[in-house]
Amino acid sequence: MSVMLQAFYWDCPAKEKQEHTWWNFVAEHVPDLAKAGFDALWLPPISKAASNRSMGYDPYDYFDLGDFDQKGGVKTWFGNRAELEALIQKARANGIGCYADMIINHNSGGDEEETNPLDGQKRWTKFHPKSGRFPRDWNCFHPSRYEAVLEGELYAGFPHLCHRNPLVYASIMEYAQMIIEELGFAGFRFDFVKGYGAWMVGTIAKYRYVQDGKEFSPFVVGEYWEDGESIAQWLDHVNSFSDNQVAAFDFPLRYKLKDVCDTLKYDLRNLTDNGAIVTNRPMRAVTFVDNHDMGSTASTNNNSNPANDDNTIVNDKMLAYSYILVHEGYPCVFWYDYYNNNLARAGTPNGIDALIAAHQRHAGGDSAILHADPDLYIMQRAGYRDDTVQKSGLIYVLNNLGDKWSGTSVKTKWKKQKFVPVAWDGHDTATPTERITDAHGNSEFPAPPRGYAVYAPA
């Protein structure tokens, strides 16, 4: 795996002055993103929501991709189907796949209120979508005749789809097929997966799609915003339904990294325990630093996002990016950080672009922690080579001290080997010096104050 970009943030069409043209705007960036080393774009929800100025997490008409005049206009907040297809095609031509954001837990924007005869409650569950596909009534939601007891958790009080209803099941499967087989997406990101049965995600993951005349297995990742044990249990459950194994976002690691960045004198030895998904299931972990639900880019102005607390990373965010881009897992970079916070820093050794280059060329093979104390963490990637991929390995140093460079002698796997710094940043951006290991593989590897350094064999 390479590096994913979350290609949106909350209210991005308005904030970037790209209302109803976001697909075109992202397409303009594709060549540069490919050059930087991204292999995938996670796109925002593609379907018409309860408003045509919605981020899409309140879906109304799954099969209206911006071509029917309903809910305030024709286009979605991001554009129409032709523009979406053009973006996907351009991305694929540049070696980048696109992942679709799947919101199959709940709906919003119902056209009529009706009484559910099973519990006597009134809800907005009559849907008459202008696409003509997937009309719905109370029996498509919980409680229904197919499943009276809610499977999962409610989301923001919206009507909760009952996937056991054959109409709902068939329509969601048709939607998934359209995304992969007609639009050309490479995978799915499932929103709020603790809100419905893992069997539904597993079923969509294992379906035998056909893309470009060949059988195709999509990449699939779920958002299970919980502790590590709960996520691990969900991964076991969902993957029991599918031979196409599903990944999960590594929330436990993300909160550790927030502490590294924002908590004074945080003990770096906490990075060595087994709480993160990437520690025990590196092939199933999507690692990340921030996303659209976190902090200053999240908003409650648009009725589809319930996030209220500001938990974005505030200080020294490059420490977190350095960690995810050299360790195992599938790292995901946030558009707002890359562009709006100017952390790409193209052409320098001090930004995300340099870390992506280090990831591509050097971050392969098993990880081994060579040293960990409250203020210093040093890790080795052993390197990897097969018929198509060669990665040299690396030494990564994370320094928590705010006032001085810090390092210590560690024993690496390389004897009499020169190492050069390939990426670094901190409160001092002076270039780290080259290092040479002795006959036993030992050398000292320093990093800047409140910073990191990545060294690669020369």
Question: Topology, pairings included?
Answer:
Layout: E1 3-6, H1 12-15, H2 22-36, E2 38-42, E3 48-49, E4 59-61, H3 81-93, E5 97-102, E6 112-115, E7 122-126, H4 166-182, E8 187-190, H5 198-206, E9 209-211, E10 214-216, E11 219-222, H6 228-239, E12 247-249, H7 251-262, H8 277-280, E13 285-288, H9 317-326, E14 330-334, H10 335-340, H11 352-361, E15 367-373, E16 376-381, E17 384-385, E18 390-391, E19 394-399, E20 406-411, E21 418-425, E22 435-436, E23 442-447, E24 451-457
Parallel strand pairs: 1-2, 1-14, 2-5, 5-8, 8-11, 11-12, 12-13, 13-14
Antiparallel strand pairs: 3-4, 6-7, 9-10, 15-16, 16-19, 17-18, 19-24, 20-23, 21-22, 21-24
Helix pairs in contact: 2-3, 5-6, 7-9, 9-11
Protein described:
The structure is a single chain. With 458 residues, the protein is of the alpha/beta class. It has two domains: 359 residues, TIM Barrel, CATH 3.20.20; 91 residues, Sandwich (Immunoglobulin-like). Helices cover 24% and strands 23% of the residues. The protein has eleven helices and 24 strands. The strands form seven sheets. An eight-stranded parallel barrel has the order 1-2-5-8-11-12-13-14, surrounded by four helices. Strand 11, helix 6 and strand 12 form a beta-alpha-beta unit. Helix 5 crosses helix 6, helix 7 packs across helix 9 and helix 9 runs parallel beside helix 11. The longest helix is centred in the middle third of the chain and has 17 residues. The radius of gyration is 23 Å and the shape is elongated. The relative contact order is 0.10. About 2% of the residues have low confidence.
